Amino acid sequence: MANLFPDTDAFIWGDEEETTATDSTEVIFGKSWRYDYDAGDFVLTPSGKVAIADEKEAWVQWCHKAILTPRYRHVIYSRDYGSELEELVGQGYGHAIMESEITRMVTETLLTDERTESVDQFTFKWVDDQCVFTCRITSVQEDTQILESEVI
């Protein structure tokens, strides 16, 4: 019986044009809707339409949302999306361990996106059991932004 999955390189899946288009190493930055995380709602223009975020702002919003979204909780997201920061809550770890884990988890979360080049320069501010942290993110287009979030 013939093999359904040939072992030879002579067989090409799909059109040759399609394979060359997907071989491109160019990272595509898209646009999105502008969202205000403090208000918990979309930003509206004076005419009442939802404002559009440019490519850089859309990437920064993705990073912010990925940090805030608990990983593995919502089936609509892939298993690669979201952070595990809420697992640190109530564990009783010391500040040094918490800071190390926050650094690791946030870096892993944000580097899953091909638009993110690096995550560094973490700073931490503690008020009782609440940790407010900031980090610098850099895109593959060399845009930088400071993100701020918290673990309570």
TrEMBL record:
InterPro entries: Sheath_initiator. The lineage of its organism: Bacteria, Bacillati, Bacillota, Bacilli, Bacillales. This is DUF2634 domain-containing protein. Pfam families: Sheath_initiator. It comes from the Bacteria.
